[in-house]
Amino acid sequence: MITSGNKEAYVRSNTASGNEKIKKLIVAAQEYERQRISRELHDELGQYVSTIRFGLESILSSLPTNATEAGRLAHLFSIVDKLDKEVGYFTNSLRSPVEDEGLKQIMSSFIREWEQRSGIPVKMIFSGSDDDLLDYDIKNALYRVMQETLTNIMKHAGASRVGVYLQITGSRVTLVVEDDGCGFDVKKSGLFQRRSIIWVLSACGRGLRLPADH
Prior knowledge:
- By secondary structure, this protein is of the alpha+beta class.
- The longest helix is centred in the first third of the chain and has 58 residues, at 4-61.
- A hairpin with a 3-residue loop joins β4 (201-203) and β5.
- The chain has a five-stranded mixed β-sheet, with helices on one face.
- It folds into two domains: 4-93; 101-213, Heat Shock Protein 90, CATH 3.30.565.10.
- It is elongated and about 65 Å long.
- It contains four helices and five strands.
């Protein structure tokens, strides 16, 4: 026999379960779209950039080094080279960690690339156990949180130093990202889409401190 109180609890439980499934489907669809865009950037745009680069190299090699056109072409070549690096950066940033790839490994790789692109040094401290016990969805969400946070720091925070701290204890993980900049509007950053696993402090003059705890 189901009383009204039990029935209400049952409905709430099923609604929460349904909402969780919907969230997972949305995240899966977003990841699929990221992979599709990443492949197209690499296969299509990357191919065009490479063709332009080889064409410019061929023309440059046939011109005298003191020719006026050589200087202009060299400038264009530097722009194309920068574009090629940007395409590579965005292609890599869109990809998701593979199932058997360590969270620390993929985070370190992205952070090194981010440092080169932004010119902002990052202090990384990874402690605790390996991430074998972490669910893939959790690893992916934490990676995306770090990625989106660093992107917003580079664009809006005016920071000169950043710290990324990851601690794993069994199946529990804590991620903290902080900087010495002026903060940014978290509501407009896209991070609130992941508010089920994070809380954020961002205020002008106090920089950003973003702990993600699971």
